[in-house]
Specification:
homodimer; mainly alpha; 3-stranded antiparallel sheet; disordered C terminus; DNA-binding
DNA sequence: CGCAAATAGTTGTTGGGACAACTATCAAGA
DNA sequence: TCTTGATAGTTGTCCCAACAACTATTTGCG
């Protein structure tokens, strides 16, 4: 076993408590706004967004799960619900009959196009506007260092920019 | 309505994506280790720890809920489960018959004393050891700035040090 | 070819958290 | 005093995520 436990000193404890509080509150705040304004959880929003920005607005379930940091069972349940609401479609992959492809429908694109401004507003109001440009850069580095520990495979690192002024959502509107 | 949406620029988007990934992965990592090694969720661990460090190892349900950033219904359910496991006891407050006090039992103290080293190890391995002292200070400031937006009442700010080398856990052992 | 192992996905069950509804008690004021 | 409103807590219901079990297909290899 390990030697004597190295307890946290004052600075470590203070930073840790705040980080835990942040990790606890942030998901709820994101879900609350999106559910209220668009009837989507944050996870559903991210999944639809990932599909919207994929080539042909289509992606393999496994790849989508990886990009959104979800297990395949979780994504499967969510995909069923989204499909029932007409926001995505699923169809078997022609080249690999084990696989399933998912596509955002027009209704799905319209929904995220409608939801995006409010979501970005929440992101700014609750996080980005509270930080200086230096802190934004620091946050990037710190989160990167921690993710290297928490997510060694860097599945999430592959997540593309979800907020570009890009043409995807413009087309969707 | 608001004017044109200010979409995120490259730096903002990159930092945001990482922060979301961190907030998504961290709670699961903490729960996983504690559940595996002590049969406790991270929330249960924090609640027990808060009670262990309270005067008389006792706290009002409302205050405990506030310190752990839980709604009262959530805490009530958790408290019932912890009480069924013999880790806490609940009894009516003598001075206010609406209120309930919760106390950690000896078994509860023993469990967290046994769980604490592993938990601190996980905290170090997954977060603290990945950061420089400067980054630790930056994280403290950044999280503080964001919490001021997410948690304006600063309920969590009152959370005391949960990791001191302090005598509380020593007494518990 | 044929079989074992790995991969892709779905489904069922379980457990926890959010929310609403409810009871009980306290506090403030006419 | 009595009555209104606020406070403290519990309970019930619904929804979502974790996990395990399962089917189906593909791949690797003898």
């Amino acid at each position: 076993m390990s030697s004597e436990t190295r307890w946290l000193n004052t600075e470590e404890s203070a930073a840790w408590v705040r980080l835990v509080a942040l990790a606890e509150l942030l998901p709820g705040a994101l879900d609350a706004q999106l559910l209220r304004d668009a009837g989507l959880t944050h996870f559903e929003y991210v999944a639809l967004m990932a599909l919207a920005e994929a080539p042909d607005r289509t992606m393999r379930m496994t790849e989508l799960a990886s990009r959104t940091n979800a297990t395949l069972p979780r994504l499967s349940h969510v995909a069923r619900r989204l499909e029932e609401r007409g926001l995505i479609r699923r169809f078997p992959c022609p080249t690999d009959r084990r696989a399933t492809n998912a596509t955002v429908t027009e209704a799905g694109l319209e929904l995220i196009a409608q939801a995006a401004p409010g979501h970005v507003g929440t992101v700014r109001a609750s996080v980005l506007d509270a930080l200086t440009p230096e802190q934004l850069q620091q946050l990037y580095s710190i989160a990167g260092a921690v993710l290297a520990r928490l997510d060694p495979d860097e599945r999430l690192a592959a997540t593309s920019c979800q907020f570009s002024e890009g043409p995807t959502l413009a087309r969707a509107g």
